[in-house]
Structures are given as C-alpha cells and as structure tokens.
Write a structure and sequence with these properties.
By secondary structure, the protein is α+β, with helices and mostly antiparallel strands. It is built from eleven helices and twelve strands.
Length: 289
C-alpha cells in the first residue's frame, strides 16, 4: 500500500487497496487523500469490503489523478482545514456515476460534469456507488496565475453541454496520468491549455465584458508571435508574454476576452504537416470550445 514515485519525470504515484490486507484497507485508504491531496475525513458503509485505487502525476503546480473505488463519502470541516498547509483547488469529475456534494450550496452532479473545490471552504462529497473520477489538483499560486478570482467557478457545476464547459470537460476526461506521461508535447503546454480553458469558463460564467481596442490589438500581437514561434518545442505562454512585455496573466486574460486560448492558438498556427502529425488525438476538438 506504500505510494511509490518512479525516478523519471514527470513523477508518478500509484496506490491500490489490493496491496493492503482486507481488514485494514479502508483505514489505510482514509489516510491517502489527506497525504496526497488535502486533509479530510473519509467514511464508508462497508469498510470490510472496500476497494480503491489511485494514480497521480505531477506537472508542477498541477497534479492529475485518476481514482476509482467503492462508494464512500468525504468531509472537510474546520478541524481538517486547521491541519492544512497551502491553499489548493480541486477539479472533480465522475466518468460513470452521479454524485452529490455540498460546497457553497447543495449540488447533484451528473457524469461528465465538473466541479471546482476550494480547500479554504468546507465541503461534503457523497459517492453512493462505485466510481471512476478525474481529479485535477491546483496549487493556489498556479490557479491565481490564471484566474484572479477563482470564486467565479468554485462550487458550481461546469456542464459538458454548455459553452467552454464542453471543451474543459472533454480535455479533462482525456488527462489521465498515462496520457500525460506519454504525450509528445511538453507538460507545461498541457498545463497551459488547461489553465486557458479554466479562464475561459470563468470568463463565460461571470458574464464577460467586451474586449477593448487595446486588448484586441494585444491579442493580435500575441497570435502573430505564437504563429512565428509555434515550431519551438518548448514554447510557453511565459515566452510569448516576455516577448510582448506583459505578464502571463495579462496574456491569458487578453486571449480569453477574444475567445482564444494559448494552447488553442499554438495548435491552430500554420505549422508544417510533419509537425502537425504529432498532435495527440485528445487535443482535437477542444481548442475552439
């Protein structure tokens, strides 16, 4: 039951209850979320027949997890919050079963819908049935680089049939640790694309204003810079922001106001066909929303 991180990068952590004697599985599992994610209390109606598994890959500021197991519930209240260190945010999405949550209000969440949780706020999560979850954890610093006001998304269902929620949930579903590790693209670019989609969802859900002429001009310059440099394998939003002499946050906000994302602009740039062939299938169809 010990979590092991292989030496290669990005680092991967695996855990499964099968490695623990049946009588101790649930008690051992109850410690895993608190050590790998954030302190919480976990409960099960059938602890002796409990089963669960988790795999996690760290992208630097973003951790991608896949979790599956028997039905259980989790609670985070002031006692657990006092034990926490750094604030974090958690995007949760079930692939196969409906679940319930209470986080700034009661939620009934359907498969394919995502919810963003803030570790600074209490929550209850109830998964009555066996589940498979996508769980993406963000550090506070990483999240605020993309979303100056994450509260716009916290505790609200992000639907796969509406606006930019369609693109975000489709992309998140494909972000399993194996796909991240095997991707021919830099992990930084994948994290940037995820941040862009979160920013676009927040922009959309907050009733966005129209972009100004200065923002449109900056967006045009950004798209031109991306087109000129798109063949650079390690090109990041920070590289383009530095060239334009603006902050990364300003770059993403400007692109978002025009309905663009950094990752989408890179993939849409006119690059040679041999390079285009490297584009993995899970990027297709998620750049434009």
């Amino acid at each position: 039951g010990k979590a092991v991180a292989p030496a290669h990068a990005p680092s991967t952590i695996r855990w499964t209850a099968d490695e623990v004697p049946p009588a101790a599985r649930f008690d051992h599992y109850a410690e895993v979320p608190s050590t790998t994610q954030t302190p919480m209390s976990v409960f099960s109606e059938k602890p002796r027949s409990f089963a669960a598994a988790m795999i996690m890959v760290d992208l630097g500021g973003v951790s991608v997890l896949r979790q599956n197991g028997a039905g259980n519930s989790a609670r985070r209240v002031h006692l657990e919050m006092e034990r926490s260190g750094e604030r974090s945010f958690h995007l949760l999405m079930s692939l196969d079963t409906e679940w319930k949550a209470s986080h700034r209000g009661a939620l009934r969440v359907r498969p394919g819908e995502a919810v963003l949780f803030d570790s600074d706020l209490p929550y209850d999560i109830d998964m009555a049935q066996a589940y498979e979850f996508v769980h993406i954890r963000f550090t506070d610093a990483w999240m605020h680089q993309w979303l100056p006001s994450p509260d716009v998304l916290v505790g609200r269902a992000i639907r796969p049939d509406q606006g930019w929620g369609r693109a975000l949930t489709a992309f998140a579903q494909q972000l399993c640790p194996a796909a991240v590790v095997d991707s021919p693209l830099p992990t930084r670019l994948m994290a940037d694309h995820l941040g862009s989609l979160l920013a676009l969802c927040a922009h959309e859900m907050a009733a966005p204003r129209s972009s100004t002429s200065a923002e449109r001009a900056l967006c045009d310059r950004a798209l031109e810079a991306i087109a000129q440099r798109c063949q650079e394998a390690s090109l990041s939003a920070g590289d383009v922001a530095g060239q334009l002499q603006v902050s990364v946050r300003t770059l993403h906000r400007t692109l978002g106001a025009a309905g663009e994302t950094f990752g989408g602009a890179v993939m849409a740039a006119p690059i040679p066909a041999p390079v285009r062939m490297l584009e993995p299938p899970f990027f297709r169809g998620v750049a434009s929303g």
